[in-house]
Amino acid sequence: MFLSKKSPLVAIDIGSSSIKLVQLAEIKKGKYELTHFGIMPLAEECIVKGVIKNPKLVAEALKNLIKAEKIQSHYVVSAVAGESVFTKKIKVPIMSEEELSKQITHNTQHYIPFDIDDAVLDFEILGRIIADEEEGFKNSEQIKFLCDSQDNYEQAESSEGSNKMRDFMEVLLVAVKKNIINEKRNVLQEAGLKPVIIDLDVFALMNAARLTKDFSSMGNVALIDLGDSFTHISIIQDGAMSCTRDIPIGGGYLTNVLMSKVKVPFEQILAIKRGKFSSDIKEEEVIETIVEAHKKVLEEIKKYFEYFITLSNHQIERVFLCGGGSMIRGLDDFFSEYLKVPVETLDPMQGIKVNPKDFNQSLVDEMSSLCGVAIGLATRRFDYI
């Protein structure tokens, strides 16, 4: 099969507790209709902190999901996340995309916290800015990376100690450990699928959010994905990704705390998180437990916000929550009170046409918070040239 932008791709998000599948048909530019939607739970310990520990079980669960949803296309788009993914926004002199690609390939080791030979590199040009030369060239290593051409190097060297302003490009640098990509690719292939795009969770979530939100007019926005193993934070400035951070605390921690303190089986946890209580459970005790369990992650989120404010001299103006943890009733108000900013729970499915003849609308609405990454991935098209 020859792949093009019109080729149907299936979005597969393999998370710590479940696999999410979404397929969208583009009915017109930027507008989509849901064609396939499914979730398959994973056995405990199949995936731990983003690392696939039992690939055979994960592949088997994925096969069953593909079969249940009667998927015809075997070409998939998936994503990676966690501590093996690194992003950083940098400033570079104006240069062609081809030249920048060469520079990044050969001179980025001092930016990346792991061996460059073990990583896959990519970048996105965010746009042009005007900045002080000293801000663009902070040290000799950066000058070596930014100014590999003789002309650029001479300009940087001669301007040392000056406060001249000049044009730069802002670039988002991305590095992912090869073994994480290979693990994900191997599981997909074991399930009989053909991965054609491997994205990042943070980019997929931003694509999902853009279905209902225009970030370009919102200033500085934080998109927080409350996953099972990790809490992913993405700061978006004027519609473009600025920086990201993964906190190794997620909904699984809350689940364990609830099971320990409230003494309920795992099967009841999801209902409790959604505010459904049986007569033998004290609602006040559950709420108190949820509040206490979230304080640690909120402290880390607040620290990261303070770091961003110090670095950029800009405030976070709004927060959007997504992921399974955002399904907890009243969590947006609690986050807003703690962080002192408006907080809203994101529902990307609101921007997608859902035919009630094909899907149970209430079930789709109930599960959509879990599927932000998969929805964002499903908007991707095969665009490799």
Concise synopsis of the structure shown:
With 385 residues, the protein is α/β, with parallel strands linked by helices. The protein contains 13 helices and 16 strands.
Strand content: 25-35%
Number of strands: 16
CATH topology of the largest domain, by name, is Nucleotidyltransferase, domain 5
For the record, give the distance between the C-alpha atoms at the N and C termini, rounded to a whole number.
Answer: 16 Å
Helix content: 25-40%
Written description of the protein model:
Helix content is 36%, strand content 29%. The protein is an alpha/beta fold. Strands 10-6-1-2-3-16 form a six-stranded mixed β-sheet, sandwiched between helices.
What attributes does this structure have?
six-stranded mixed beta sheet; Nucleotidyltransferase, domain 5; 385 residues; 29% strand; 13 helices; 16 strands; globular; alpha/beta; Dna Ligase, domain 1
